[in-house]
Design goal:
Blueprint: H1 4-13, E1 20-26, E2 32-41, E3 47-52, H2 56-64, E4 66-72, E5 86-96, H3 101-114, H4 116-121, E6 127-142, E7 145-149, E8 157-159
Antiparallel strand pairs: 1-2, 1-4, 2-3, 3-6, 4-5, 5-6, 6-7, 7-8
Length: 163
């Protein structure tokens, strides 16, 4: 088992490698939907996505208020395909209303991060901003090296035990 301080440092910097998340949602009837979305993340691990209302995952987020998020090491970069580094969060999803200071601040951040396309999209009425608040998760760095993300302190990891 790796040193927990080293693993925590890896965990803290892991999301910075990514511009998009794999987003898993389900309909109110339980039909699963896998997708992706560009994202922002805060220091407290709150994630934000700006998604089209025409997408199935947006409707699912509105109906259920739940999502699972996956960040996973690129296949081309991994040494072992069966043990790719990955981070998952189970999240509560909340829409953020337009014309609020929080919405404007986040849209400005999206535009700084992703460029002019956001300037075009923010005028489209179907696009919606969602906050994804992790309720816990898991960080895997290899075989036998899985760590739980503490639900009470998302910056803390705990070794996951077999059995």
């Amino acid at each position: 088992m790796a040193d927990i301080n080293r693993v925590t440092e890896l965990y803290q910097t892991f999301p910075q490698q990514f511009r998009s998340i794999i987003l898993s949602t389900a309909s109110a009837d339980g039909i699963p939907q896998a997708s992706y979305a560009p994202f922002l993340i805060d220091d407290d691990k709150t994630l934000y996505v700006y998604v089209s209302g025409l997408s199935v995952h947006t409707e699912n987020l509105k109906q259920t208020g739940r999502a699972s998020v996956l960040l996973i090491e690129d296949e081309a970069e991994t040494k072992e395909i069966f043990a790719r580094r990955r981070l998952t969060y189970e999240c509560v999803a909340s829409p953020l209303p337009r014309d609020t200071p929080q919405w404007q601040t986040l849209i400005d951040r999206f535009e700084q991060t992703f460029g002019q396309v956001i300037g075009l999209m923010k005028g489209l009425p179907d696009f919606q901003l969602f906050q994804l608040q992790p309720q816990g998760g898991q960080f895997v760095i290899g075989f036998g090296a899985a760590y739980r993300v503490n639900a009470d302190d998302l910056n803390r990891l705990e070794a996951r035990r077999q059995g």
